[in-house]
Structures
1.
Amino acid sequence: MAGLDISSLFFTEDLLNHLYGELDINTNAPSVQANRGPFAYGCRSPNQITTIVMEGNKHRVLTYNSAQHYYQSERARMMCAPELADKVRRSDQPVTDGWVPDEDYEKHVNEWDRCKVDVAFKANWLKFNQNKDLAYELLLTGNRPMVHEDSYLGGVCWGKSISWPEINRKMLMIIREDLRRRAA
């Protein structure tokens, strides 16, 4: 697996499974909790993720306090409106504040289902690539397996049924390998 060019890749469950299959994971080593501490998708720190977007002919810098803020904000933007996305981005409760009206949800659920894994991967990739301390913590896990023990994330999650615990742990191990290769 070469360094990932996330601008040219669209991440799906199939692509994650392919990239995960290329990893050298020491299955005999003790596992690492993927949903605790700095590895948790909701782990917060001020301005953890920064993006630059074009609005008309001007650039706008957006900051997010967690990968969850980024994910929920993108979901709100795609399914509802930019105003809701901005509210979610600044929210203390991005999951709750990111709920969209049923009629908007029904109109856009298929589009969201198609891209939500891509958004989640890029949110986590930005989190670890823009924060050296978080990247360092992830790299310290070596090639140990990462497990995700959180029953809340199982089952149906805004659309088709997908296993977020499985996806999250694979994303973290793929990002860890990408960080390792970029550092070499």
Note: The beta strands are 32-33, 49-55, 58-64, 146-147.
2.
Amino acid sequence: MPQPVKLYYMGPMFRYERPQAGRYRQFWQIGVEAIGSDDPALDAESILLMINYFKSLGLKGLTLYINSMGCDKDRPKYMELLREYAEANRKRLCKDCQKRIDLNPLRLFDCKDESCQLVMKDAPKLLNYLEEDCRKHFNMVKRYLEMQKIEYIVKPELVRGLDYYTKTTFEVISPFLGAQNAIGGGGRYDKLVEEFGGSPTPGIGFAIGTERLAIAVEKEGAFDSIEDRMDVFIAVADQSTKPNAIDILYALREAGISADIDYMGRSLKAQLKYANRRGFKYTVFIGPEELEKKRVAVRNMETGEQIEINIDELIKVMRDIVKAA
């Protein structure tokens, strides 16, 4: 398979953690993965994809944090220094963090306990111990982001919650979510496939928690700005012409035009009232006479102006009219 392989997924997940606001035992997740390349440009592309997705939802005031977790060339020496520092401050750490000193001291940076955060504020940072290749990689990621005018903050404490990350890690937070403010994040996992017995295969990806994202969108009021676009309503004068009308409906939708039809058996007068109440911009009238002539009437619902269009040209004409509106 040609690489890099780019994938996405959406679906329900499960976690064994204490439920919190926007963080449940069962939750929905959106994920993106790019597997097969260690190019820093792919890191930047992944980050940009996530940022642009949030922007498309109307989210503002987001903060992007980035960091580098280094690799197996620089991490062993750094881990020794970090353990020494943590051991010297063991009594100031919470019980969970005291266990992490031996298991994985990097997770000390991920603790939400205030006393632990105070201790780790002065801990040695991995960014200061990166070997040359990792440093160049991180610098290129930053350069690509800057070229696209993506603002970021380098956060040396950002380790994320998963132990397999290497090199780039990133996280986006919303100001509307309190302590649990991350709405998406990810990183590079160049050794993960190898650890499961596969051949060396670098990769990078990110995940977005759907429930937490929905809370952020709602609190920011972004849902209010989403336009409920209603372009064309198809009014059927006679039920015998409904199959033809349905055919036109699907053709309009396929052309990118928001269109709908009556499914309640309303009279023509009631259909027009419904179309007006729903805010449709145009109504297309289809009946036996229109089909026989192969011409349909199109009414501008705001001005009342009505024109006739050849059925064969309807999709193209409506696409131009809607685009110009």
Note: The domain at 5-74+130-223 is CATH 3.30.930.10 (BirA Bifunctional Protein; domain 2).
3.
Amino acid sequence: MDSWIEAHARFTPDKPAVLFDGKVLTYREMAGAIGRLAGYLRSEHGIGCGDRFAYLGTNAPDTLVLLFAAARLGAILVPLNWRLAPPELAHAVTDSGARLLIHQPAFAAAVAAMAQDGALPSAICADPGDCGLIRMAAEHAPIRPEATAGSARDALLLVYTSGTTGRPKGAVLTQAAVQANALNAIHMQGLTSEDTVLTVLPMFHVGGLNIQTTPALYVGASVVLHDRFHPDKVLKSLAADRPSLTVLVPATLAALLAHPGWPEADLSSLRLVATGSSDVPHPLMRGFIERGVPVLQVYGATETGPVSIYQRLDDADAEFGAIGRAGLHTSARITIDGREAGVGEVGEIELKGANVTAGYWNRPEATRECFRDGWFRTGDLAEADGNGVFWFRDRLKNVIISGGENIYPAEIERVLRGFPEVREAAVVGVADPQWGETPVAVIVPSAEGACDPRALLDRFDGRLARYKHPKSVVLVAALPRNALGKIQLDKVRKMAEDALAREIELKKA
């Protein structure tokens, strides 16, 4: 995969590959940095084929150079979600067996906290503002492309995604999977070397990394990189950097539409916006469409790269609201209890293709559970029409998607069960106009009057990432259960919605 950058360095050496905070990294410079960083990682830290190393930081050129250096070494990059709490980060580092942790200065306190919870590998700190990691490796002898230890079959990314049990699992993506994903994305968006991509979503997610960013580098386009999403900065960048494409999730779409500068924003360079991560509210898409910018939906998962089912420009208007068709290098089907569903029947989406994960790191049982006859089971529900167009309907799993982030109720429930004033708890997602969904905890107190909802919420600090904290607590006498004693989550959700509606009415009164 590292050959992508080498090829562009030969054909368009002075073309900007990455633009970040006023700095430009050309394809020639990026190719050189990849070789030197690979040399540094091998000579100074012993990183070789099959070794894992973790990266904790916001978006920066270092992130992308690390990815391609890993490809050259045949090593595996473990991108860490900087929104997680230290115990969650520590789990990913230790579970992956990472030999090295690279982090930005802003996360030094988190790294120190992780070290207190258990043994961590050696760590190095690099400032993204001056491409510190690239600079750190500047004097090292490069590993040339002809000496690469990596191959298409090698694992490249180990991306942690929580399961419904709440225990994070590392999805393994090979170099071949990332390349197949790039080809899907190129087919979806018509990407060419003339494009400029604006990347504002975090690249620790495959959405931020692989819907447009790595595909852009595959075709020799330019990437304008923001450290994280800032609405003001995005609107200024649209005018100054003139990107032709960007990826936005519902929460970021909503933030831009609500910004006071939106009505006058210069969108003239955008030829499309890609979106996904949840059932995208139609008004958010129409907000861009009404300004002359097509919006394409893309569907997938961490385990699939993610680009698997998608719309193309020719189809977006006629199939508004659909998630699209199976991709160029992906097959998709809908099943009901193992049988293939008929036209119009709602069932589980299953995917197969070169972009799909090789499995979960050191979790053979979880890997077996997620595959059926070679097909990856997404846990999402959809139906397809007679033309092979897929329409997302619901989630089979209980995942809550809030602002593009996956939140698993079991993680929150496990924390709640550790509080003495909580006898029982169930967490559900409730619709939210800004975030898509937010988690609400429905709790049976251990004793009447013993549970203070506000105090309970405050105790989540440091236990889970802030975006996973319940936004509200609803106290009930009992949780509804079926005849088998299982909690009926649909009824729990109705209880939560009714309670929140009453609160709104009281505030109005």
Note: The mean pLDDT is 91.
4.
Amino acid sequence: MATADGRASAAAVTSLPARTQLLARSFLFRGLDPVLLERIARLSQPRRLGVGETLFWEDEPADALYGMAKGLMRIWVHGPDGRELTLNLMESGDFFGEIALLDGLPRTASATALADTELVSVPRAAFLDLMAQEAKLALHIIELLCERLRHNTDRIRDAAFLDLGTRLAKTLEALAMGHGEATPEGIVITAKLNQSALAQLLGVTREAINKQLKQFTSEGLIATRGSRIVVRDSGALAARGRPKEESD
């Protein structure tokens, strides 16, 4: 979901000017008055998380909105039987935690770092105060919520109508674009997503992911190097990720 406009350097959360710049480049805050941006930046706090560290848990009270400066954050829920489902992956430039922040109810999901992550937290009271003053920010929030709804609708549609191979190919293509490193062998997905994490993202078993990855490997679409996946043929992988009617 991150765009070039939202990207920030590793030092983005360490100084006031850098935090102001991060806010200004984000979808939520861009276009706002610079004085207001600096005001909210002064109230914000930098945060750092290591791999596997959880920022907040489902059902916890919401006290802040979070913006990504660097890293990868997994938004997830767990079922009564202990199984986990990944709802979204947050990247540089993304803001999250807005639902519970706005309605005052407990968090609807948990957030765990999948990579070393740097982010900024905006206190709830300061954010609501700013939103009351700025109609443009309120509109951006509405647009963000609509984007989340569309994303979730797409996920439900894909799960209902697309086979696992198509969904996995789409996921790997997106990961390669957002977290890919070009090498002579292909595009290495640098995000630390093992087969269990991919299974949680797609709502299937690890065994099903393993079988499909082996199929992609035999087709020459990918290769595995330890825990990393290398996309060897990005064009063919993208084609595999399109529904059959779109490919015909």
Note: The first strand starts at residue 45 and ends at 49.
